[in-house]
Specification:
One of its GO terms (molecular function) is metal ion binding. This protein is α/β, with parallel strands linked by helices. Helix content is 34%, strand content 18%. The protein folds into two domains: 185 residues, Rossmann fold; 76 residues, Alpha-Beta Plaits (2-Layer Sandwich), CATH 3.30.70.20. Strands 1, 2, 3, 4, 5, 6, 7 and 10 form an eight-stranded mixed sheet that branches. A two-stranded antiparallel sheet has the order 8-9. Helix 1 packs across helix 5. The two termini are 16 Å apart. The structure holds flavin mononucleotide (FMN) and iron/sulfur cluster (SF4) (2 copies). One iron/sulfur cluster binds next to helix 9.
Length: 279
């Protein structure tokens, strides 16, 4: 492998952390790397695209797991890729300890449809990004050093695969369909736009809001306009970043019901291993 692109969206930073571990590991193996944050740019420059989708390059694509699935901006990015012949990809997800769902499988299917065979994949436990206000959030202190080491090892093995065979053989996507069959079927029916409606609507206390605009600047999908207080467009992915970063703590949402719901889901799913590499 001579060239790699590491693309992700990461509203609370864990997926970005994994992307950085991947990039560092690639560079240590002598691979040239371009990293792309989908919150800052929605696609790839044409010169980068021209160097992807061949037997010397690899696309690493990361998403957090939301409602057991991939977040829409990451799927939209993949759908926007020109069709490749013989491309290679490594999808990766971070999840908050409730269920990693079928997000890796979603990514694998989407990548394959654009001509990118999946030659490795990673699911990595991370702190649950809906639980920052609660004590002992699920996935606390993850990704940790052990998670990072597993990711580094995966990347090194993926790079070595390029020296062993060209093109690198793709993994069967069934490998990423690791949920029990009934859960897999239920998760396949999740529609992101509908799942979002079960989340508490964002409420801003206009007495506390100083109209500073920080939430609008930092929203990863540009869904906030100040008119003159924050208003939220339909493309909101419900990441809660605006709630987390508001310097005035002006969002008044009570999220306590989510704590119980998420922990119950984690107990029911009881997913193991928490961090896993697929080769
Ligand atoms: C709206 C929303 C839905 C989520 N759904 C799930 C889920 O289904 N299962 C899970 O384990 N974690 C879930 N999480 C937690 C995130 O997957 C996890 O914290 C992830 O690491 C966040 O990535 P980021 O730090 O890159 O934003 C959800 C978080 C949010 C905000
Ligand atoms: S970050 Fe908070 S204070 Fe600033 S505009 Fe948004 S809601 Fe208002
Ligand atoms: S409006 Fe808030 S919750 Fe919605 S995507 Fe933007 S930052 Fe995330």
């Amino acid at each position: 492998m001579k060239f790699a692109v590491v693309v992700s969206m990461s509203p609370s930073g864990s997926t970005d952390h994994v992307g950085q571990v991947i990039a560092a590991s690639l560079k240590s193996k002598g691979v040239e790397v371009v990293s792309v944050d989908l919150a800052k740019q929605s696609g790839l420059e044409s010169d980068v695209l021209e160097r992807l989708g061949n037997d010397r390059s690899c696309l690493f694509v990361g998403s957090p797991v939301y409602f057991s699935r991939v977040i829409p901006p990451v799927l939209e990015f993949i759908a926007s890729l020109p069709l490749a012949t013989g491309g290679h990809a490594v999808p990766f997800v971070t999840w908050g300890g409730a269920s990693s769902g079928i997000a890796l499988h979603d990514l694998g299917v989407a990548l394959q449809e654009r001509g990118y065979g999946v030659i490795g994949a990673a699911k990595v436990l991370a702190e649950h990004s809906m639980m920052w206000r609660f004590e002992n959030p699920l996935g606390e202190n993850h990704p940790d050093e052990t998670d990072d080491r597993l990711v580094t090892d995966l990347v090194e093995r993926v790079v070595d695969k390029f020296s062993a065979a060209s093109p690198v053989p793709a993994l069967p996507l069934e490998m990423l369909a690791y949920q029990p069959p009934q859960a897999f079927t239920e998760m396949s029916k999740v529609v992101f736009a509908k799942a979002k409606t079960n989340m508490p609507a964002k409420q801003v206390d206009e007495e506390q809001c100083t109209q500073c605009g920080v939430c609008a600047e930092e929203c990863p999908v540009g869904a906030i306009t100040l008119a003159p207080y924050p208003e939220f467009a339909d493309n909101c992915i419900c990441c809660f970043k605006c709630l987390r970063i508001c310097p005035e703590d002006a969002f008044t949402n009570d999220l306590s019901m989510l704590d119980t719901r998420i922990r119950e889901r984690a107990r029911t799913m009881d997913e193991h291993p928490k961090t896993e590499m697929f080769m």
